[in-house]
Amino acid sequence: MRAESLKGHLDALILAVVGAGPLHGYAIIEELKRRSGGALALPEGTVYPALHRLEAAGLLRSSWSDGDGRRRRVYELTRRGQRELRLRRGEWREFAQAIEAVLA
Amino acid sequence: MSPFETGLGRELTEAGISGRLRRRILIELADHLACDPDAVLGDPRALARQFANELGSARARTAALTSFAALALAGTLFAAAFALSPSPAFGAVPAGAPLYGRLATLVAVLGPQIAFVAGGLAALRWLRRRRSGVLAAAEAAMIVRRAALGVGAGIASMASLGTLAIANQRYLPGGWMTFAVVASVVGLGALVAAVPSILAAVALRPVADGPAGDVFDDLGRLAPAALRGHPWWFALAVAGALATIITLAGVAGSDGFDGAIRGIGDALACLLGFATLGRFLGLWGARSEPAMR
Questions:
Q1: Over 50: is that where the pLDDT of B291 sits?
Q2: Which among B82, B88, B127, B157 is most buried, taking Cβ atoms within 10 Å?
Q3: How far apart are CA B149 and CA B278, in angstroms?
Q4: Cross-chain Cβ contact A26/B55 below 8 Å
């Protein structure tokens, strides 16, 4: 899937992945790939600015974690992020149903 | 350190990202490369610019919103103090009032108007662009200027409210003076609390090209179609409307001459404000402003 097709959906995808539990940047990207069966192969660098932006917007919070001898920034959803994820899921289902109804 | 990390570090600095944020980004990307040495993270320059654009835009929006919230609280307190004020507070200054009290009265009359206009414009552009993604460098800078001027004028206004209450205490009821001083302190606290968000937005700005926009980008469809693209005609129309409303209010209050004089004075003040602060506030002349970096 082309990166342009994901524009506008990246925030919701990240929120959905982080919603399952706290993850660091690399793990978020790997989880996106895994859940999409490899179809969502994003330009990896672009996920990090999005993570910072979502944190600045109060949808994610992050903290340092020391594991495997390395410092890592681990992200998790805030309450506001959980509300936003529910909202985005609802919007997506409505949108997908409408498109499916037309295309099918 | 890999060539990618070295290049990214240089480009982050170039994009205006420094200190703890720069270190954090480098650590996160280094961890990514440690997990997958073959990862393709993209062009360091493009990545650094994306960080600056995303975070600079978010900070500009936060500064506008925080400033407006603080100004709304301070403005409410100031308006309450004004509405409850006895005549010597904002009206004719008593003959024996000290000089600093007279100066405070002058600031208390002018400051809130500047704070209202600048803070309101910052909030209006925030409203227009809240879901627009990345802001152009020129537009973000203009939003932050509006927020900074609004908060600066608000701080001066709230400080002057407390000052004039203390300076003229001999002529004012004790209850009002106490209220004015408390309102001044609370308002100042709210406004000072908004300053870090403005400083954060000044420290990191987006680097995207694009125009800052002008008053018509603030008003959108609210601006009459015939006046779009002509900010000075728009300013004249606003000043004319203001003069008419104040004159009619004077006529209704059975002093049409006084109303007309005040209306013309306020219209001229409106045009003077548009001329002196309009460019700074991005109301006119900013359409072709280039990116900062």
A1: no
A2: B157
A3: 12
A4: no
Q: What is the pLDDT of residues A87-103, one digit of tens each?
A: 999 999 999 999 999 99
The CA distance from B124 to A99, in Å, is 34
| Residue contact B39–A44, C-beta within 8 A | yes
Neighbours of B20 (CB within 10 A): 7
For testing contact with chain A, the best of B21, B24, B25, B31 (most A CBs within 10 A): B31
Fold of B63-207: Butyryl-CoA Dehydrogenase, subunit A; domain 3 (1.20.140)
Strand (E) or helix (H) holding B271: helix B256-277
Encoding tokens for residue A75?
A: 């992200």
Sign for the pseudo-dihedral over CA of B119, B122, B128, B131: negative
Listed in order, the ranges of chain B carrying CATH 1.20.140 are 63-207
- Amino acid identity, residue B52? A
Do A26 and B54 count as a contact with CB atoms less than 8 A apart?
no
Q: For residues A28 and A18, is the Cβ–Cβ distance under 8 A?
A: yes
CA distance A61 to chain B (A): 14
Contact residues, chain B to chain A, C-beta under 8 Å: 24-25, 27-29, 31-32, 34-36, 39-42, 47, 50-51, 53-55, 58-59, 62
Report pLDDT digits (tens) over B181-209: 999 999 999 999 999 999 999 999 999 99
Q: How far apart are CA B225 and CA B220, in angstroms?
A: 10
What structural domains does chain A harbor? Answer: 3-103 (1.10.10.10)
Torsion angle, alpha carbons of B249, B251, B257, B261, to 10:
20
Which are the contacts of B99, defined by CB distance < 8 A and separation ≥ 6?
A: none
Chain A positions contacting chain B at CB under 8 Å are 24-26, 29, 43-46, 48-50, 52-53, 56-57, 70-73
User: What ipTM is given for this predicted complex?
Assistant: 0.88
Residues with Cβ within 8 Å of B176's Cβ and at least 6 positions away in sequence, in order, are B81, B84, B85, B86, B89, B165
- The set of residues, in sequence order, having a beta carbon less than 8 Å from that of B170 and lying 6+ positions away, is B94, B96
The contacts of residue A64 (CB under 8 Å, 6+ apart) are A71, A72, A73, A74
Please count the residues of chain B.
293
